[in-house]
Every structure is written in structure tokens, then in C-alpha cells.
Amino acid sequence: MRLLKTALVAGALAVLSVTTIASAYAQDTKIGFIVKQPEEPWFQDEWKFADQAAKEKGFTLVKIGAEDGEKLMSAIDNLGAQGAQGFVVCTPDVKLGPGIVAKAAANNLKLMTVDDRLVGADGKPLEDVPHMGISATKIGEAVGQAIIDEIKARGWKMDEVGAIRVSYDQLPTAVDRVEGAISVLKAAGFKAGNIFDAPQAKTDTEAALNAATVVLNAHADIKKWVAFGLNDEAVLGAVRASESVGIPADGMIGVGIGGAESAINEFKKPAATGFVGTVIISPKRHGYETALNMYDWIANNKEPAKLTLTAGALAKRDDYQKVRKDLGIE
Fold first, then answer.
1. What mean pLDDT value characterizes the chain?
2. Cβ atoms of 266 and 236 closer than 8 Å
3. Residue 46, pLDDT score
4. What are the start-end ranges of the E strands in 128-281?
5. Can you give the pLDDT at residue 26?
6. Where does residue 115 fall: left (phi above 0), alpha (psi -120 to 50 degrees), or beta otherwise?
7. C-alpha span between 148 and 12 (Å, rounded)
8. 0.90 surpassed by pTM
9. What's the CA gap between 174 and 179, in Å, rounded?
10. Residues 62/82, Cβ–Cβ less than 8 Å
11. CA distance 107 to 79
């Protein structure tokens, strides 16, 4: 009996020791999460869900905003100086890829990207860097189909409708999204000559409003419009522009991408606006799962998949709460 008790105590101590070591290791683990536009709701949500992973696993999460290449490189050096072991990044410029990889290696940091995939000098993706992103073309196609369905529901004649392509062509993801939408529009009989480019200086609502206003003023004879772009902010900017030139809500069909707080707030307004829907892409996976993957890579030497693509779901004013719940956001 004494031997049995001794064995049980020894076993319990061994389990306690392993648990204590694992807990201590987690406390020593420090992971950076760098985003290009920390003020945007999407990135705020990514950070929120990354914080969840940090609390669950007990590691330290260092959140850094880096709006340009210089700030990004400084942030990586800062993480290295803090003793971090790795970081997740959404870069302000995908063409910085080789420099980011080199800087991470110089600081002995593991590297994973989220949202925007790094490219090399030849413009091709750096496939050795683990990445979680969105099937941009498919997301864009979903936007295009939502627009076509709404055009039909309103009984509009396709050749009387103008389309605002709110563009940010220096970002490949942005190009893929809008071109995906355009491919569906054209396949449904939308006139290519009625699709107008509205290049935005930044990926926020104000820049999109300014860009879309130029298009609307240049084509004041068109009274029915649709709008699409990189994200919700791009489309909200186009909707605000349409309102500013006197186009009523029933003369605009805007479908965004992201399902950000700005889109949800639009749905909550007492009266419907020209922003009719958003293809929600869950920031939960992009924040929580990438942070968790980085932790597993550091703690358990389990490298993340080289490429993970997430999907989206269309949400409208009358069903956005259910869609968010189905995606695990609420």
C-alpha cells in the first residue's frame, strides 16, 4: 500500500511538473501582431481575437501598428529586442516581402503573414512564409452576384446602371476582389463601358468618398449606381458620395467586404441606406487562429500550413446577426 501511495504521489508530481513547465514556457512566450492600419475596425477585431488566444495559452501578445515600411522594420527590431520568438504581420506593402523575411531572420523571429501575402522581387508570392488570407477572387465574385441579385430584385435595366469600382490597385488582394466582382457583372450582361474606376489614395472611407465623388460628378446623367471595392470602408465611401450628390438610397446598391463594425452600424440605422450588404470575412480566424498557430509553432515546433484561405458569407440588413453568429463572431 505504501509503494502504491508513493507511486501515485510521484505520478502526480510528474504531471504537476510538466504542467508547471508548460505554463512557465507560455509565460515566457512573446508574440508580435503587426497591422498596417491599427485604427481600422477589421484590425481592431483581429487584435481582439488574438488577445483571446494569448489569454487561453498564457503567452504575451505585443500589438503594433506599422503604417509604412520604416515603422514595420523598426517594429520587427523592437520585437527582437524584447525577446519575442515570432510575429504575425499584415504588411503596409507586400513588395517589402524579401526585406521582412530578412529582418525576421536577423532577429531570430518566426514569421507568419495574415490578410495580405508577401511577394518577391518578381511579384510572385513568397510561398515559404506561412499565410492566412482570403480567396480574394471568390469573395469578389460573391459581391458581384449579390449586386446582380439586387439589380434584378429592383427591376433595374442593366444598361441604365453605372458601377463604381473603388480601386486600390497597388494591393493585389484589392485587384483580385474587384476583378472577381466585375467578372460576374459582365457575365450577367453588365456593360463594360458603364464600369468606372475610382482610385483611392488610402483604404479608408474618406479616400473612397473622394474618389467616388469624382466619378459621380463626371457621369451625372446616370441615376442608378452600384459600388464595390476592397472592403466595407471603400463601399461606404461610395455610398456617402452618392448621398452627397442627391442619389437616394433606392438608387444605390453597395456591397462591401469584411463585415466590419462600420458595416454593422450601417445596418443598425433606422432607415436603410444604399449599403445593402457585406460579404463577412471572419476576423476571428485571422486573429485568433494565426496567433494560436504562431504559439504552436514556437512552443511545439508545429509549423502552420503554408497557405490557408478563408471564405465569407453575404450578410444584409435583415440577417446580419444570424450570419455573424454562424461564423462564430457573436
1. 91
2. yes
3. 94
4. 131-134, 161-167, 195-199, 224-228, 252-258, 275-281
5. 57
6. left
7. 64
8. no
9. 9
10. yes
11. 8
Amino acid (1-letter code) at residue 95: K
- State residue 40's pLDDT score: 87
Residue pair 275/314 in contact by the 8 Å Cβ criterion = no
Q: Which of 202, 170, 200, 43 is nearest to 114 (CA)?
A: 43
The Cα 64–Cα 93 span in angstroms is 16
Alpha-carbon distance 65 to 207, whole Å? 20
At residue 82, the pLDDT reads: 96
Asked if 79 and 32 count as a contact pair (C-beta separation under 8 A), the reply is yes
Identify the H or E element spanning 210: helix 205-218
Strands (E) across the chain are located at: 30-35, 60-65, 86-89, 110-114, 131-134, 161-167, 195-199, 224-228, 252-258, 275-281, 307-310, 312-316
Cβ(28)–Cβ(82) below 8 Å: no
Q: Give the Cβ contact number of residue 155 at 10 Å.
A: 6
Report the C-alpha dihedral over residues 315, 320, 322, 325, rounded to 10 degrees.
90
Grid cell locating 124? 510572385
Confidence class for position 4, pLDDT limits 50, 70, 90: very low
Give the cell for residue 269.
440605422
Phi and psi at residue 328, in whole multiples of 5°?
Answer: 80, 15
Q: Which three cell numbers stand for residue 225?
A: 449606381
| DSSP helix/strand/coil, 127 | coil
Q: Is the dihedral of CA 247, 173, 146, 324 positive or negative?
A: negative
Let me know: does 249 contact 270? Beta carbons within 8 Å: no
Cβ neighbours, 10 Å, residue 224: 17
Task: State percent of the chain over pLDDT 70.
Answer: 92
